[in-house]
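User: I'll paste a sequence; please echo it back and then give the predicted structure.

Assistant: Echoing your sequence first, then the prediction.
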Amino acid sequence: MTKARDLADLGNKTSLDEINDAYDAGALSNRNMIINGAMQVAQRGTSSTTDGYNTVDRFKMSNAGNDEAPTASQQVLTSSDTGVWEKGFRYSYRLTNGNQTSGAQANDRIALQHIIEAQDIASMGWDYTSSSSYITLSFWCKSSVAQNFYARLQTSDGTSQGFAFETGALSANTWTKVTQIISGDSNLQFDNNTDTGLVIEWVMYRGTDKTGTMTLNSWGAFDGAVRVPDMASTWYTTNDATFEITGVQLEVGDTATPFEHGKSYGEELAKCQRYFYKVDGAGGQTYNAHIRQTSGSGTQAYAQEINLPVTMRASPSVTVSYQDLHKPGVRYDTINSVSATGSQQSVGLIYDVANADVNSISTQVRSLNVTADAEL
């Protein structure tokens, strides 16, 4: 539903109660500051044992000290996922613990992060320096092991601040909705730029190197040595234990409204492509491209530009791989190298090829794979 339709709809209400009911029913759009909170988009793939951004877009696994690497994966939900299925969720992000044979060590960690740009928090409508102004974080989660978990928020601008809270005791294999109201604080700062503004981290386990005594549900100067309270190791020491999350929403106000399902897959994908974009020519597909000759004798270098579908957050780092470069009917004998550069609007590729047809101004690239990464 568009903002215009939202306002028109609210204009037809005859009382404050009706307006509040419309808001509670999820009538207002563009209120969720989380990108891909329903875990729909996974440009990189659906499973990985490598930390960082490798599966579900905008969510990254953070792990260290493990005997066996955990697995991050996008999961397809079914009607047996009671609680979330009937709410319209069809995907989740799952972390599967490896076999931690040496037990829970002081420097071990498995966590999940989502990072929001500073300018998006600064302009979301939250009076973040006022203790009487609020945002609300809500999400659905499920653990295969009955346990209480912790989550935390961390700011980057000014003097870094931290805020930790608990999920409450989760019953094993049961989807539970967690809601956390977060007040502003006079020490919070969010600059109006594209750098890191707010880190949200869900902690499956952190060892005692980074835990200790702290006050929950309150902002305080960030202490890297005490990020969350000391926590149970039950989940971490259970082989192949799982933790799943979906329906992540961060919004202004002290009420968790129903999850904003109004965004299409295409809208969510475009938001994700601000941070990561992938051209995938796997499977022998052919990517048609126009190129131009940039040197006139001997080995020929050809330049190609790929226009990005959205403006990226920053000039991306670019990787490229390919099967072969050819003119229809004429195979080039050798590709010596390929280099790549990126701007916020385009990716430039330069092919260094031998025995090229110097009169050709167009060609094709088979199995061209390009990634442009501007993640926080």
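The longest helix spans residues 3-11. Confidence is low (pLDDT under 50) at residues 1-15, 288-293.
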